[in-house]
Amino acid sequence: xxxxxxxESRNFDVVIAGNGVLGMSLGLVLAxxxxxxxxxxxxxxxxxxxxxxxxxxxxxxxxTTSLVSSEYGRTKLELGIRAxxxxxxxxxxxxxxxxxxxxxxxxxxxxxxxSIGTAEIDDANFNAIRAELIRYGEPFEDVDPxxxxxxxxxxxxxxxxxxxxxxEHAVNAAALLARLESAFVQAGGTxxxxxxxxxxxxxxxxxxxxxxxxxxxxxxxxxxxxxxTQPLLDTLPVGPRIPRLVSGYGVSALVKTVDGTLPRSVIxxxxxxxxxxxxxxxxxxxxxxxxxxxxxxxxxxxxPEMRDLIFLLQCAQRQVRRSLSVxxxxxxxxxxxxxxxxxxxxxxxxxxxxxxxxxxxYRDGLHLSPLxxxxxxxxxxxxxxxxxxxLFRPVRPPVQAWSRERIIDDVVxxxxxxxxxxxWKLPVEWxxxxxxxxRPATAAWAEEIDPEITPPxxxxxxxxxxxxxxxxxxxxxxxxxxxx
Length: 484
Ligand SMILES: Cc1cc2nc3c(=O)[nH]c(=O)nc-3n(C[C@H](O)[C@H](O)[C@H](O)COP(=O)(O)OP(=O)(O)OC[C@H]3O[C@@H](n4cnc5c(N)ncnc54)[C@H](O)[C@@H]3O)c2cc1C
Hints:
Helix content: 25-40%
Oligomer: single chain
Number of strands: 19
Number of helices: 11
Largest sheet: 9 strands, mixed
Bound molecules: flavin-adenine dinucleotide
Strand content: 15-25%
């Protein structure tokens, strides 16, 4: 029991800590279903991933050879496919309920394979996306790169192949959040503009949250505070049994094009260099979103590192459109993707009565939001739900989606890929020589972290430079062994 005496108290059916896309979407679904719901979070959304997202509504564009080689990855892809089918009605309802411009900003997605990068990553992932589009019967058409009229990269970075997926769009994340908020209030929900500072519990049952000297009592509590869910989990006895959250810190930018033109669709590369691929998303009124970097960081970040910003903008002007270099940068955005220590979502009952967790969505939580909010709302109301989320239950041993050998190969290939994307110049043999030493060094490092469990590639890579990450990986592995 951790009750605090003498606090003002309000009571709700459900209290949700976190006002990003997941907390707001869940709050809306529950409020529409007659629950008394409070959503907590400061209005300027510090650390949020949602606010910095390009907000691509895509799951095929996210496919990699690794993703579809594992049961966990394929399950995630199939959740993404279901979510994709929900967006048209989800958006139509939101757009009906408020005035203003539409939320959707891009019509389809064009995936390009350009000459930057490596065959092992770029060609392989480009082909993997096509293969999954075919497998699931999702329409797409090949496009001659010469017909990509808005794309005008440097000659040495030009696209060699391309295809267009008409069903994968993008939205304006800020407009989406605004609509979710107004629809939530209209449905009778309460916005509490403070941060939750802790979760109240008695024995095995959570009973509310604390915020700014107030107790918000509730029969059910949802933690959906993105990468900052961790400090709240740390206030609960179950916390150490759930994969810790770190941040996939990312930089994105909004740029006004010099000629006022925009592409109609998202233009993106496949995922590469441990990140979500280079992508440009039209935002209307001559403005384009450029995204995004992804660096694993133990603590969420609020300001970008200069090198990340330089890298992002360089990639956009060189690989997609040279005249972006004389465009006006209107906003630089920093966001934190909620990344669990095994890199898979943490979704469902949280291991104490009345506790729910909805986070760890990494690169595509915005896309998944209509699905996850409806699935979790159904379960909270005692219904079964339609999708199987059991692989992503919060209290679990670390997901081992890939063999150690495969993870080491991925680390080596992506590390080398970063070099090519940064335009390094090497004598031809050096690529092979570096790999010869990098592979055994990475394998030895994996062994040093743990003899059996291997962190996912980007965490294994980052852990070599970040001792705090090694510490939390080992602590979580130790607790999961005690749990058996
Ligand atoms: C650069 C970038 C690009 C991305 N692009 C895409 C994309 O194209 N498509 C896609 O689907 N996904 C994308 N993502 C990932 C996506 O943004 C996330 O998966 C998703 O937004 C996570 O939503 P969330 O609500 O869980 O967390 P967040 O958006 O991080 O929101 C959490 C909220 O909780 C608040 N909070 C923190 N602590 C507390 C507390 N103690 N009490 C109350 N509130 C608290 C925060 O201020 C924040 O507002 C991208 C992410 C980044 C960073």
